[in-house]
């Protein structure tokens, strides 16, 4: 529809008389509209400014008065904080002293009655959670004081401020149920927060200087809003409905003056913000009556402009109606191809025909451009396992690879060496560009004699599909890739390695070829960076998986790190890495084992400190050579062992060690946290705090875990009954022991003994 209108408009403007009519009509329309709108908005701006100024002055008078009351209330709170009786109440050991409480209540009575706008005052002891208030009196616990709900959240609301004024809810049991406007001030003694003073204002006196609008015939209303947008106070001659104040604040967006629509009315809003309380003072006035005559003038001008525009459009349409009649038949002939309009000039038929041919050519080019992208996605889908059926693969292959007629297909897996270091070296925005450059270099070097298609598989990996077109080209692929690796290092300053598959039998065996190429690429772990490794070079023995070593070495590594003995931990790590190197494990198995070592170190680190930000390095072990992976693990072991070593030298860790020794010595005794804390000579709360801080576990949880581990040993190595083992690990009732054991091990003791003995019998001697 839009395109047809554009064609009609172009055809109309091709005629001189039509262009003259269009220019005159548009000029008249624009002049009339501009004059009318300028007059309207000028009048509107003047009226708004004249109306808003008295409203702004009234708001400022009310704000200054309220701010003055708030300042005086704050000064009164400061006097209370500096009073000697308040100091005695917050610092004395005997807080419930009759003399102190009596004089303190009398002091609050004097302070409250000395001002006409303060209703009551509270003094809250933060640590002992007691309160003294006038007129309520003394309460030894906030739980017994009806109006104490604010004590649970006020600390978070203070943030870095000493004083805070807010509107709060009052429980129904209090004397003044509903809401209060309260000033809160911290009481700091020797730099430490000891208490909070709460001064409750009388709303009637606090807002007594909020004056009604001076122009009585206007519908208006004034609001006082707190920092979160809640309404503290409002008055006026008209209620604009719920949400009017919030809508005004949103529309003003920080400006002093603005107008907006709400509830079917056009409203004018003026605001100021208090520098003392952060409250927003808002005046909202209906401007319907003020602007009614101005809007009539605006509407009349717009009507005249539209009439002029319609007259010109009718004249143009009438003039061109006859001119289009000769070409309508021709336009119908093109209806099967396009529904566009044509002009009265017959040469436009040639243009329309040319556009049709151009569109067809563009569609053909786009189709040819998208074919490589679709073929590249086919490789990625096969690699990811999204396509496994022979029919699906063969069908898409026949559409996207029409030029690939030979039977031989070679898959090359290209990977960026030490991808973790490469990712840190180059910005994320450059990663795709650099990988595109790698693919271009490989494609250019293969050149004549090869069909080449590359696919980005994400992260470090790219797949290159090759098909030789010359008879002697297939044996040259490894040499070309070696040269490409050298060129990439020379031009891009980083290294890549590649694995080459043997020739596959066709598209249905591509996934196996990708697996072979990826297996060959994995031997970069032993051969080093910048290598091109052919799958046929791998011996049959190297392709067989080897059994992982016993978990004993890995457990010894963790024990040495936790003991803070770096040299022993490094020796164990070197032994593990040496075992991998000497036995030449299959790379996938070796990488899996290195990742498990790193995961164990990471769990130890998280037990001592918060998890670090950044990528998970364990994802990049598969792109490292063995020496670099071992070096990275060595640095982690040294750092973590040093950290644990420093911790073990601390006094707190020594106390935790004493508690652990005591637990190990009394696994069969029915002792608890109290006995463990008494053994070290500290309180239960301090012992729990230190143990959680140093061991990242509660005393009860750690003791229970020791008991369960001891129970596992007894279940495997002895024939004691379950009830006897329960007694040996400190449980007087067998059912309690079974319940705790199932919670920690997700299996009952009897099932665990049966399972472990079955495994032991199945192992070869």
UniProtKB/TrEMBL annotation:
The UniProt record lists the keyword Phosphoprotein: no
UniProt KW keywords: DNA-binding, Membrane, Transcription, Transcription regulation, Transmembrane, Transmembrane helix
Transmembrane domains' residue ranges: 20-41, 300-321, 433-453
Coiled-coil blocks: none
Domain HTH araC/xylS-type: 657-755
Cross-referenced PROSITE patterns: HTH_ARAC_FAMILY_1, HTH_ARAC_FAMILY_2
SUPFAM superfamilies assigned: Homeodomain-like
Source organism superkingdom: Bacteria
Annotated Pfam families: HTH_18 (PF12833)
Statement: the UniProt record of this protein carries the keyword Transcription regulation: yes
SMART domains, alphabetized: HTH_ARAC
Protein name according to UniProt: Helix-turn-helix transcriptional regulator
Biological source species: Paenibacillus medicaginis
